[in-house]
Amino acid sequence: MHGLSTFEPKNGLVKWLEARLPILSFMHGSFVAYPTPKNLNYWWTFGAILSFMLIAQIVTGVVLAMHYVPNSDLAFESVEKIMRDVNWGWMLRYAHANGASMFFFAVYIHMFRGIYYGSYKAPREVLWILGVIIFLLMMATGFMGYVLPWGQMSFWGATVITNLFSAIPLVGDQITVWLWGGYSVGDPTLNRFFALHYLLPFIIVAVVGLHVWALHVVGQNNPDGVEIKDVAKDTVPFTPHATMKDSLGIVIFLLLYCWFIFFIPNYLGDADNYIRANPMKTPPHIVPEWYFLPYYAILRSIPNKLAGVIAMFSSIALLAFLPWLDTSKVRSAKYRPIYKVFFWVFVVCAVGLGYIGAMPPEGGYVLAGRILAVAYFAFFLIVLPLLGLFEKTKPVPATIADAVLAKHGGASAPHTKG
């Protein structure tokens, strides 16, 4: 749904620009007059939080790149030099490192919100798929960034993850050699990872642009999963209503972000990464960053290497097929009592897989990982397709205005959608 811009330039220079490049009216229509569902809650602020974090990561990353040396003999020392000798280098490094974690924390909440409220359902399939592509690009960027400090966990994490591609039949070995730039993780690997880590965020910006464009075409979903029927009754202008809400959400999120930067900057990292990379000494327990742990747990749950790699990538790829796997005609979990229970079971499974991924692959952890992995796939491949066929949903409001009135004790006109 396009914004209804009422922007009228008063200044002569602005009129001249608008006649040739109507960027100000476009901005006004997209971020001021844009009709926003009036029932949005604070879970919808994470889109703005993610935009802020993307900018913060690019700014801090560009400055760090000015001082970083992508050489296997000098990378570790260059990071230490940034921390000790560059003005505010310690803060830039901690802001960037913890910013990656904050970025993933926000994107996971953003995704869980979308799954809970059915934001992937028609007509928002392309919007959702673009979001999954952004997530994949984030994962690639995060992994390559973790390699750059060239500590023990950086080196061995890169060795383990890139070796996974060798399990692919026929072309696996060639892909692995290409990633390494040779026959083992070394200087060429670090160089290409640095180049790609610098490039990918700008590709993410481009896909985010498409994501926002798709959002403005189909309009925002909302907690009740009801389409806008009457712009005057169902919506409010984006500014000041949504901008004030988003600003508050960003400020609260910044408090958490700053707490990590200034008080516990190494809490989410691994102590082994403060030891220079040593190809001759393997750490006792190799683990990726926390935001990769659920997928790492799925990988380790299957003893066959190729099957484990397929399962790990499938666990992410399944997200793109959500619009077609979910057969229910009702979007929001607010009106799907059984789905709501399964959703929270799914969240517990995802968090549980994250915990298992951080534990040694032995004893009960292996069994628990397999059970949780089966439950993860069952949610997508069994629960969602079947639940829409027999679940009895609650009455859904006819309009957003009815939902708002009902919430505040007014009259409403609910009806059932299948």
TrEMBL record:
The chain crosses the membrane at residues 42-69, 90-111, 126-148, 160-181, 193-215, 248-268, 306-325, 337-358, 364-390. InterPro entries: Cyt_b/b6_C, Cyt_b/b6_C_sf, Cyt_b/b6_N, Cytb/b6-like_sf, Cytochrome_b, Cytochrome_b_C_euk/bac, Cytochrome_b_N_euk/bac, Di-haem_cyt_TM. It comes from the Bacteria. Keywords: Electron transport, Heme, Iron, Membrane, Metal-binding, Respiratory chain, Transmembrane, Transmembrane helix, Transport. Belongs to the cytochrome b family. The main subunits of complex b-c1 are: cytochrome b, cytochrome c1 and the Rieske protein. Component of the ubiquinol-cytochrome c reductase complex (complex III or cytochrome b-c1 complex), which is a respiratory chain that generates an electrochemical potential coupled to ATP synthesis. This is Cytochrome b. It comes from Candidatus Rhodoblastus alkanivorans.
